[in-house]
Amino acid sequence: MITPFQAMKKAFIIFMLPLLIGVGNAFSQIQTEKQLALQYYQAQEYDKAVVLYSQLFNKSNLSYYYSYYLNCLLKLNEHKTAEKLVKKQIKKNPKTQNFIVDLGYVYANAGEVEKSKQQYDRAVKEVSGERSTIIGLANAFLAKNVTDYAISTYLKGRKALRGSYLFHLELANVYSRAGKFNLMIQEYLDLLLAEPSYLRQVQNILQYRVFEDPGNKNAEKLNNLLLIRIQKHPGKHVFSEMLIWYYL
């Protein structure tokens, strides 16, 4: 004899089974579309990939699909559609400056240099006093290979945080990427001035970034800057240790 509880359990299973099957089929379909879209994208068949990424993004609103969708539009020179897409994201997420960078990038791709600059300036202007937000915005610029604005972001962030975090490592990395080796070395030495415990880490980084230069110009710059620091801060033994390491 079936108890009332068993009857309810059976009815629940019968009710839920079609729903679970439907969810499973929908998930399977999305995974298939995702794989197919990526295949088209990697094969540079952007006209096919853009259709799938548009559908996937509209269904999920995930940033993963948004990035691919936007890139497809730019590859196809569909700048007006890309502009509308990004502006819609800015409207939905007014505090997310990364989308402002995307809008500037759309204009840059369309050859509208002044409009692009206006959006990049706008993004930097809105830099807040949150460390994670500053790093996120700088990374957004770096992803678009706009290094000067990444530098501006960190410098403005340094002021906004009022000395609580100075972004020495982050700025040094961007200066290195931009080929500004003097400024890169200065940032590492400023870091050692404030935090000598970073000595080994800085040495490891400079071993790769400075001494791999075939003309040894960067090594000479490091030598000269170390001598200046020793004269300026005679009590800071970390610079003497750096100079010994340099000669060894």
Strand content: under 5%
How many β-strand runs?
0
SSE arrangement, N to C: HHHHHHHHHHHHH
Compute the average pLDDT: 89
Structural class: mainly alpha
Give Rg in angstroms: 26 Å
Shape: elongated
Uncertain spans, ≥5 residues at pLDDT below 50? 19-27
Q: What is the overall number of helices?
A: 13
Q: Helical proportion?
A: over 70%
List key phrases describing it:
single chain, 248 residues, mainly alpha, 79% helix, elongated
Describe the fold and architecture.
This protein is mainly alpha-helical. Helices cover 79% and strands 0% of the residues. The protein is built from 13 helices and no strands. Helix 2 (46-60) packs antiparallel against helix 3 and helix 6 (113-125) runs parallel beside helix 8. The longest helix is centred in the first third of the chain and has 39 residues, at 4-42. The radius of gyration is 26 Å and the shape is elongated. Mean pLDDT is 89; it is low at 19-27.
What's the structural blueprint in terms of helices and strands?
Elements: H1 4-42, H2 46-60, H3 63-75, H4 79-92, H5 98-109, H6 113-125, H7 131-143, H8 147-160, H9 168-177, H10 181-194, H11 199-209, H12 217-232, H13 237-247
Helix pairs in contact: 1-2, 2-3, 4-5, 5-6, 6-8, 7-8, 8-9, 9-10, 10-12, 12-13
Task: Compose a concise summary of this entry.
With 248 residues, the chain is mainly alpha-helical. It has 13 helices and no strands. The protein is elongated, with a radius of gyration of 26 Å.
